[in-house]
Amino acid sequence: MDSTAQRAPRPTGRTIAYDPSSAASPLHVRAAAVLEAGWTGTSTVPSRGLYPHQWSWDSAFIAIGLRHVSPLRAQTELETLLAAQWADGRIPHIVFNPSVPLDAYFPSPDFWRSSTAGHAAGAPRTVQTSGIVQPPVHALAAWLVHLADPGLSRARGFLARAYPRLAAWHRYLLHRRDLGGGGLVSVVHPWEQGMDNSPCWDRPLSRVTPAPARSFRRADLDHGSPEDRPTDLDYGRYVRLAADYRDRGYADGPGDFSVEDPAFNALLIASEHALARIAGELGAAGSARQDRAERLTAALVERLWEPSAGMFLCRDVRAGELIPERGVSGLVPLLLPTLPRDLAAMLVRTVCGPHFGLGGTTRLVPSYDLLGDAFDPHRYWRGPAWFNTNWLLERGLRLHGERGRADALRKGILHTAGASDFAEYVDPYTGQACGATGFGWTAALTLDLLHDRPAWDRNGVTAIKGEDRG
């Protein structure tokens, strides 16, 4: 569908009525229309204007929602992304659409130079990509997409074709990105973690000399308010890190920015559990992956849990210390089925306490500590609430028996998504839309939350462990 496709109608400001059992509910129709408008024929763009290519973890979340509209399209979404995998196993964070003008997004393909700078790492020759990665939600998405229509999935050989690519992706992360030597994966750029300008990155980023402002042009400011976006100083540091990584031929190793992040590793663990289920579906043993997921959970607790904060913190690998900032990333491990119960209980207290305010001062969980010096309710990942992290926390609450809180968060997500015209992110206090509207994963995760919750619990994160603790 071209860029002139009709957008979903703008909100009226009234409370959105929805029927979770009906695919014809107004909110379902509007959310499906957003995904239809972003569909390119092989994948879905997060936003036609601001993000006109395919993004890695966006596509995983989008596939989770698309499975309720078209399981075939959901499978195709993931297959298109996996087809751009590098020979070393990495799944790039952007797959570029060659029909989009170079100046529509920066950094563009001519910045990344994947086919030349990434040659030694096995970048594909037939498609241009970035050279960094994003959180590994993909195996979890593939398993949930399979469950939406197992007959279609088996007839197309969906899991049989996806499994070796997903396994190679996990091997890359576990073998090439254990930069701290403690068993966890490190990210080498804030864009890899996905929460681009979180205050959690300020300390390690301060070591990075920014690229000169005249050396790049920020296309994102053509589509969003500068007050909602990362600063020019931060952006200059992002460009420097990416250029240095590119100029090393995308070879992995400790650098100025090497961080072990709780959300990135928690999503890898959740996807390891999913790979075990996929292996079982394909007639192979999944016990080794279950064991690995449990070892990774233990490493996560050992290296990143901070009792005094009541949550997980990021670790600056180069400095060898935890970063004393509370970001939503440190709450995401709540979605892990083998997380010790006392830690899960403490995370619930933290998410509902004064630092994040769920059920009290905030409508949705903010991306950063409400009491932090760097908190800003509108600036990208420095305070606004995002729908993907709230979707993950809804699942974590439900998984660990907090059904009342999960139901309340679900209701808040659905109302805020509809009232904000499926905004990219929102003010956590007021729900005011920030960034792009008609945003892909917001619409997709709205669709997922509109569908039968008990069935998701049986077949989603809880079912990965074969138990229902909700």
UniProtKB/TrEMBL annotation:
Keywords: Glycosidase, Hydrolase. Gene3D superfamilies: 1.50.10.10. It comes from Streptomyces swartbergensis. This is Mannosylglycerate hydrolase MGH1-like glycoside hydrolase domain-containing protein. InterPro entries: 6-hairpin_glycosidase_sf, 6hp_glycosidase-like_sf, Glycoside_hydrolase_63, MGH1-like_GH. Belongs to the glycosyl hydrolase 63 family. One of its GO terms (biological process) is protein N-linked glycosylation. SUPFAM superfamilies: Six-hairpin glycosidases.
